Amino acid sequence: MAMETSTQEANSITAPAAPLSSEPSGLTPAIEVGRPAPQEQQQLEPLKGPLTKVYAFWLAGMSCDGCTVAVAGATSPPVEALLAGTLPGLPQVILSHPVLSVEAGEDFMRAYHMAWEGKLDAPYVIIYEGSIADESLAAETGGYWSAMGSSAIGGEGDPFEDKLVSTAEWAKRLAPGAAAAIAIGTCATWGGIPAAYGNVTGSMSLMDFLGRDYRSALGLPVINIPGCSPVGDNFTETVAVVLMFLQGLGPLPEFDELGRPAWLFNETVHRRCVRAGYYEEGTFAKHYGDKECLVEIGCWGPVVQCNITSRGAINHMGGCMNTGGICIGCTMPGFPDKFSPFYKTPPGTIISGTASRIVGSFIRPLRRISQRDRNRERQWDKAGSVASGWGHVAEPSVGDRFVHFFYDKLQFLGGTKPGARRRPEDREREERAERSKQMKQ
Questions:
Q1: What is the Cα–Cα distance from 196 to 131, expressed in whole angstroms?
Q2: Main-chain dihedrals φ then ψ at residue 180, nearest 5 degrees
Q3: Strand partners of residue 117
Q4: pLDDT in tens, 260-311
Q5: CA 77, CA 195: separation in Å to the nearest integer?
Q6: Strands annotated E in 167-264
Q7: Contact 124, 13 (CB under 8 A)
Q8: CA distance 210 to 34
Q9: 180, 198 in Cβ contact below 8 A?
Q10: In 3D, which of 244, 122, 239 has the Cα closest to residue 177?
Q11: Among 210, 372, 375, 429, who pairs with 214 as Cys (CB 3.0-4.6 Å)?
């Protein structure tokens, strides 16, 4: 995954070096770093396409690298197609990633500095994985939470010294000039586990760190792709459609009020869940491993916005509920605090589950009656037996026959039952209707 750099002055997007700020705020960002002030946001001229490449700078904060692993397994589109530039009409993505890039040391950091100094020959986006910790807390003891690269500090006459640069500082430096700022994973989008109650890091999301007034060089707020870890395809697909927008091949895709791709996060887990039919019939799992709906053993699927059940984890396979796991709400801003304790029945299930059981007590028997009838050939009804050597098939009960006598009447009301002869009065009625239609024409 090669990283290209150039000394040519940027002719499309340039970003001035952002001065360090110690401006106090309610959420204290990393050491020596304040949120970009409104005057620092550079609304630059629109991009001039078509583009041949776009730089992508990956930053990692309080992260487990699970988002990187998820993206590496994406298939629709695969990340290698973005990096190789083989997607029709889209520019090549030149990725700088602290784990995946082959460069190291100064060679690796050079592109970051060039982006900060406005010396790249193409636009760039920043991608932040993990939450942003309060670096001032770690600095009190001479440490840091998350850092990448170093910068020379000290005034004239002072000995040369290298100081590690926090990834929060890099986010502040690069965000104003980026064509887009993308937060991947729940830690970066909402703060996640590092920002849970009682944490000692002061962690926050990229959106909270940059503030509600932040806009990228193209006027975009932070794009959020949540999940712990997220579905890799959700990320690569979002990147692809944003690149189409940058390339001038389509409009800006729809995002919801929290910056999530609306086409990916506008449905709840429950609506696409493979077990949702059991909920409708009021049947629930009592133990892990049961096939029924998992709501009563701790699943939050009815309220969580996520597409894991329909898209799967990797290559459209797997996914929490698809493989027997419950939904613990990892894509939601309230995770993890508002979904704790895990594996406990959500309180709302007392009402909704009871209602489903009441309705299901009528729905299930009616469906089973229809199922038994539709599981029979017409010839079997005439012969009064099923020619199956696999086992005995029970004949319809008196109750089944009674129900389906009226069911068939309703089913073929206004139509002709297969095999039934048309009565003369039916033919006359149809002919009169046809003549009347012709006269009106």
A1: 11
A2: -155, 145
A3: none
A4: 999 999 999 999 999 999 999 999 999 999 999 999 999 999 999 999 999 9
A5: 31
A6: 180-184, 223-225
A7: yes
A8: 9
A9: no
A10: 122
A11: 210
Average pLDDT, the chain: 85
Buried b or exposed e, range 293-302, using 16+ CB within 10 angstroms: bbbbbbbbbb
Q: How many helices (H) and strands (E) does the chain have?
A: 15, 7
Enter the pTM of the model: 0.79
Given strand 223-225, what is the order of strands in its sheet?
A: 92-96, 53-60, 124-129, 180-184, 223-225
Contact 60, 149 (CB under 8 A): no
Residue 118, judged by CB atoms within 10 A of its CB (0-12, 13-18, 19+), counts as middle
Model confidence band, residue 169 (pLDDT cutoffs 50, 70, 90) = very high
Q: What token pair was written down for 415?
A: 């139509």
Residue 96, Cβ neighbours under 10 Å: how many? 25
Please, are residues 320 and 282 in contact by the beta-carbon 8 Å criterion?
Answer: no
Instruction: Please compute Rg for the chain using Cα positions.
Output: 30
Structure tokens at 219: 């006027």
Amino acid at the residue 143? G
254-263, pLDDT tens digit by residue?
Answer: 999 999 999 9
pLDDT score for 417 = 77
Between CA 247 and CA 267 the distance in angstroms is 29
Q: 156-189: string of b/e by CB count within 10 Å (b at 16+)? A: eeeeeeeeebbbbbbbbbbbbbbbbbbbbbbbbb
pLDDT tens per residue, range 150-165 = 875 545 544 445 688 9
The mean per-residue pLDDT over the stretch 332-352 comes to: 93
- Grouping H, G, I as helix, E, B as strand and the rest as coil, residue 316 is coil
Residue 55: partners with Cβ closer than 8 Å, 6 or more residues away: 4, 93, 94, 96, 111, 115, 120, 122, 123, 124, 125
C-alpha–C-alpha distance, residues 282 and 367, integer Å: 13
What is the Cα–Cα distance from 197 to 335, expressed in whole angstroms? 10
* β-pair partners for 56: 95, 125
Per DSSP, the three-state class of 359 is helix
Pair of tokens at residue 212: 């509600």
Alpha-carbon dihedral 310, 316, 322, 327, rounded to 10 degrees: -70
